[in-house]
Amino acid sequence: MNEIQFTFKGADELEIFVRKWTPENLPAKAAILIAHGMGEHSERYRHFAGFLNQNNFIVYANDHRGHGNSAKTNEQLGFFSQKNGWTKLIEDSKILLNIISAENPGLPVVLLGHSMGSFIVRNLISLPDVKVKAAVLSGTTGDPGPIAILGKWIGATLAAFQGKQAKNNFLHQTGFGKFNQQYKPPRTEFDWLSRDNDIVDKYVADPKCGMVMSIGFMLDLTQGLSYINSAIAFANTPKELPLFLCAGDKDPVSANGKGVTEVFDNYSKARIKNIKIKLYPEARHEILNEINKQEVYQDIVNWINDNLH
After folding, report:
1. In whole angstroms, how far apart are CA 178 and each of 171, 260, 287?
2. Residue 209, Cα to own-chain centre: how many angstroms?
3. Is the pTM of this model over 0.85?
C-alpha cells in the first residue's frame, strides 16, 4: 500500500490532516472515506486500509478537527470550535468528499464511519447535497435520552463559567465513565474498546487517544446526536442508499447492540430499502480492532462489493 499525507482547509480555514492509501493495482473499484471515532485518529485505521487496498479500493481518512494531526497543540485536542463546532465538523467532511470526487472522477464513493464517525456519516447522508454510493456504520447508537439533556444543561452551565475549551472530568465521566463498568475486574480504563489487549495498550499509550474532551466538544456532540436521531434525519436519508450497520453485542456505547438495533428500526421505518444489520457475538466497541477483525473486514468488503452495481 502507498500512503500519501496532505491537508486541506476546513470550514473555517482550519488545516485538516488526511491520509490517503492507494492500492497497487489501479484503477480502483471505489473510493472509501473513513470517519474515525472520538478521541482517536486516522493512523489507527492503517491495517484496515491495507486490507481495503488489497481488495482494490482507494481509502481516505482524515483526522477530525480537535483530533490527531489536525490538532496543532495539546489545547486543541478534544475541541472543535468556539462556535458551531458540529456544523463545522460536517462541513469539513463535505469539503473532503468534494476533493475525493475531483481526484477520482466517476468513481463510486462509499462512507464508513466508526462510533462518532458513524454519527458524522449519518448526518452527511441526510443532506441533499451529499451523494454517495453506500454507507457502513460501525458502533453507532441511538438516542441517549435524558442523559443527553442533563449533559447539555450541565455543559452549558460549566461553559458559561469555565469556557468551552476547558476540560471537565465530571462531565466526561458522566458521558463516558460507564462504558467500562461491565468488564470486571478491569485491566485498564479502556477494556470496553476491544478484547485484544495489545490494541487497548497501544490506545492507552497514545497521547492522542483517550483524552478528556472539552466542554464545548460535549455540547457539540450532544447537538449532533440530537439531529441524527431525529425523525427528519431518518426521513431525509435517500430510500435507495444501501446501509450496513455493524457492531459488537458487548459494545457498551450501543447498550450491547440495543442502540444499533434502534437505529436499524428507525431507518426501516423511514423505508430505507437496502439495509443490513450484524451484531458480532462477544465483540466490544472497536470491531475493526477486535480479535475477529478479519471476519469483520471480509464482511464489509463483501457487502460493499455487492452494492457497487
Report:
1. 12, 18, 19
2. 14
3. yes
Nearest in space to 283 (alpha carbons), one of 292, 270, 273, 294: 292
Smallest CA-to-CA distance from 83 within 148, 157, 12 is with 12
> Can you read off the three cell numbers belonging to residue 135?
454507507
Max Cα-Cα span within the chain: 55
Domains of the chain are 2-306 (3.40.50.1820)
The span from the CA of 97 to the CA of 131, in Å, is 9
Consecutive 10-residue averages of pLDDT for the chain (309 residues): 96 97 92 97 98 97 98 93 95 98 97 98 98 98 70 62 73 77 92 98 97 90 93 98 98 95 98 97 98 98 96
Q: Cα torsion at 54, 297, 213, 11 (round to 10°)? A: 50
Spatial CA neighbour of 139 closest among 214, 208, 192: 192
